[in-house]
Design a protein that fits this description.
6 helices, about 35% helix
Length: about 210
């Protein structure tokens, strides 16, 4: 079942697309990267793979339409990790209030700067978040929240994305939970190479399959 939803967060209302397969084993909330949206073809491809694996998904816009418009000129919000994390926490509470998802364990899938927001939100919510997956993420931007994350975390980085790979390795050293780094050989930041995104989706499905169900 797929439906469009409106997610309240402070004075903002965020757009989302909620998919709930029958008998879902958990729900994965997506946090996209800077300059992206819930319509990102990369995240939608991963979400489709997770739906096939039996997980519900929430793809959402972390910014309102007005904020997205302003971002084209100012770019003042895309690295506002505390704001993005707060909105992710509110989205988590939203899925926890809906009858079709209230009993589902929650995981996060974050891309680029969205990965930092996912880790900050996971640190705040503690055991309420069962697993985190980062795709080409910037976990280093989560800063002091990294040692507080309790959810098992998978970091997926392209082998040719050398700067981000170094930043992920640095972030791993600060984390105290179970954390694993998977490198997709030859892939660049957007995993646009043939077969690269499919590897990301399979790795994510495997991680959530291992850690998300109760």
């Amino acid at each position: 079942m797929q439906r469009h939803v409106s997610i309240p967060s402070g004075s903002a209302t965020l757009a989302g697309d909620l998919v709930t397969p029958a008998g879902a084993a958990g729900i994965v909330v997506f946090a996209h990267g800077s300059g992206s949206s819930r319509l990102s073809p990369r995240n939608r491809a991963v979400a489709s793979r997770l739906n096939e694996a039996g997980f519900a998904t929430l793809l959402m816009d972390l910014l309102t339409a007005d904020e997205e418009y302003e971002e084209r000129f100012t770019r003042h919000l895309r690295f506002d990790i505390p704001l993005l994390a707060t909105r992710l926490v509110d989205a988590t509470r939203f899925v926890g209030s809906r009858p079709e998802t209230v009993d589902l364990p929650v995981g996060y899938f974050g891309a680029s700067t969205g990965a930092a927001a996912a880790l900050v939100a996971a640190a705040e919510l503690g055991e309420a978040i069962r697993a985190v997956v980062s795709r080409g993420g910037r976990p280093d931007l989560a800063g002091d929240a990294l040692p507080l994350v309790t959810a098992p975390t998978l970091l997926i980085v392209g082998g040719a994305d050398t700067l981000v790979l170094d930043l992920n390795r640095q972030a791993m050293e600060m984390m105290r939970t179970e954390v694993q780094l998977e490198i997709v050989p030859g892939a660049t930041h957007l995993f646009s190479e043939p077969g690269a995104l499919e590897q990301v989706a399979d790795l994510a499905a495997g991680w959530f399959g291992k850690h998300l169900p109760g």
